[in-house]
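Hello Y.,

Per our agreement to keep a running log of every chain we model this quarter, I'm adding this entry. I've kept the format consistent with earlier entries: sequence first, then predicted structure.
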Amino acid sequence: MTPRSRNSLGAVLIALIAFALGYFLSADSSPTDLHSSRDESANGSEAEPTIWTCSMHPQIQSTTSGDCPICGMDLIPLETGQQDTPAGTLTLSENARVLAEIETSPVRRDYATAEVRLVGNLDPDETRLKSLTARFPARIDELYINFTGIPVKKGEHLASVYSPELVTASRELLSAYQSNPDGPITKIAREKLRLWGLLPEQIEEILASGQPSDRFVLKSPIGGTVLSKNVREGDYVKTGDALFKIADLSELWLTLNAFESDLAKLRYGQKVEFTVQAFPGKTFQGTIVFIEPGVDAVTRTIPVRVNVPNPDGDLKPGMLARGIVEVKLGEEGRPVGFELAGKWVSPMHPEIMKDGPGTCDVCGMDLVPAEDLGLVDSVEQGPPLLVPVSAVLRTGKRSIVYVEIPDADGPTYEGREILLGTRAGDYFLVENGLSEGERVVTNGAFKIDSALQIQAKPSMMSAADSKGGNDSEEMDREDNANSEVGPGLAPETAAALLPSYLGLQEALANDNLDEAKQALGAMMEITGHRGALAERIHTLQGATSLDEIRRPHFEVLSDAMIAALRDHRDLLPETVFEMFCPMVYEDKGAEWLQANDNLRNPYFGASMLKCGAVLEEWNPATTP
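Predicted structure for the entry above:
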């Protein structure tokens, strides 16, 4: 190599060294980063970029920090390290658990109390109705009861009548009595007048006067209220013509309409508490004495009859009543705790119950043991397994809970499909899938499920099949939501939410998704970003269709609003109407509030806009 060649090669080497030094001097060469670089080189991998997400909407992911495009909350770094956890299981850091507000409670065995809510009407007790008819031809000379609704006592005057037949019968009685007061002909004459409806004292008056009377005063055979009047002064009536209908209203019948799903919880002898609009805040009681054997073909309900004492006469036939039956449930959701064991009951009139053998006060039939009539469950039932309602994520075909894994390296939660029984208040009865003492997530289950969906792991919307795949196509997304909004919505908050809630109801009735989201946005400004209700509204703001809002989210929101404001109507800014549609869910229907009584169904929109009925008008000036 010539000197000139060596000089050229040295220049090239110097240039390369200078370039390398300039590159490293321009880079951030802190000890931490250098250490990280060495680790990455040793592992043969590059550092993963930070992913930012929303704590309320985990589906939002970004490579840069900022605000959530749905709710506006600050994005937070997405924690990694879940790749090695089993399918359907999520492990969080302690800090992430606190941020997600995860709460758990134990699964326990206990008797549960369910409420069956029913609506019906008060009617006269049919066994206390009397129809007063003409026992002989007569002319109505004077009416003392000349309009309906008048209360009468037994023996009070109803009308004065003239009857030639009565004059003849009176003469026969006087003639027989003068011949032989105790003779058989006298007895026959007395019995004839008695069968014509004359009271014993009226017969004695004829005998005391010694003169037949051409006028007869018709008296009430029972005490009660005149429900109908079929004659006027001057009318001629024939034998058998109906004159008056009188009802004893000291006891009434309350006919409640029960759905088929309620029948398993209803039994003879159960106590029913109910209210009527005429007496806000006052509760009345009655007893179930009869359940119709068939279903009403029009309303698809089963009439349940309740005997109601009405000694003060406050209750009136025709009143609308809202009843509640509290049922203590045992295993398999069957009612327990009735005190009918050892009772004797009339087979024709189950309301007649006695502590021992005897006869029915109404029909005279022999009483039989309640056990023989099937009124007492012979199977001893233990307490059922209960899980809080707020722990269950429900789809159309599955019910999912997240169970806390004990003794794990960090907060770890496993998704588990369970079989639910009936609902009892704030709890579901569990038929299969859980054990007593296990802890289930009661707050934050949505966030856990969303995180699993982001990682493409089995979740409530995508269950793992036997091949490790998903069957999400089979999942019914209609009910993919928690069925509660928390322990209770404050009445003041509900009153503040009412205008935007009514806007949401109208938007759903109009099938307008944009207006529905605007109403949800207005509600979010009131609720803020914390709490179960805010979490639900966050979910709804990301909806892409009206069905994602209607069922069950709008139903849950409506139930919370109704529960919060029912006893605090003084907080209402305006009159609202409580509406009901039995077709929303075939087992129970659904309610909502509306600004006027022009029925507009938010659950179906234009397809069934007028399906439903007005349950009650809520006036701000009156609180039950």
